[in-house]
Structures are given as structure tokens and as C-alpha cells.
């Protein structure tokens, strides 16, 4: 791995500490210490879960793509998984801000942009790994 990739991976790994701290917010919501309606509770749970899973998945994808035979485009597009780890949780949290919202606001588009980023990143990573494997054989 390059120095830049190692440093950025370290920073990404440290974000998991922030995600874990976000779990304390989720506990306050569930325990009633932070007022939230059912829509907000559901979206907060989804945002927290997606953040944790997608950051770890993004790091795994990054490690898998760090092979000399994997094309550069695969490494670049594979990082879209990490972009999804930002967009999707942001969409879940930001689309239900406010007092007692009845429906998500327009920022729910971030959820769909994150999903598209995730799909493109995973497909590109999968194809790049196959290309890299074929180059080895």
C-alpha cells in the first residue's frame, strides 16, 4: 500500500471510534433521553448501522484491491464504497432532522446516491479483482 493509502486507511479506521460514540446517541434515543418519533428512531438506527458496516466493508475492499495486478481504475472506483459510507448515513440522519417530522425531507436523496455509489464501487471492485486474477494466471 502507498503511504497515502495507509494514512487515509488509518484515518478511516479511526472514524469507527466516532461511529461507536454515535451509538451512545442511539442509546439515548432508544431510552427516551433524546426525544424522537418512530420515523426518527428508525432512520437513526439505519444510519448508525449503515455507517459501521460500510466503513468496514470499504476498508476490506481497499485491502483486496491492493494487489499489483489490479487495474488502477478498480482501486479508484472501489473507494466509492467509502463514499457510500458517508452519503447513506448522512441521508438517514439529515432527512429526519427537526421536531416530530412526519416524512423524510429532500435530503433522503443522499440515501439513494449512497446506494448508487455502493453498487458502482462493489461492481468495479469485483470486476477489477477478476481482471487482476486473470492477469496472474
TrEMBL record:
Alphabetical UniProt keywords: Membrane, Transmembrane, Transmembrane helix
Transmembrane keyword on record: yes
Top-level taxonomic group: Bacteria
Regions that span the bilayer: 46-65, 77-97, 109-136
Protein's name according to its UniProt entry: Integral membrane protein
Species per Swiss-Prot/TrEMBL record: Nocardiopsis metallicus
Organism phylogeny: Bacteria, Bacillati, Actinomycetota, Actinomycetes, Streptosporangiales
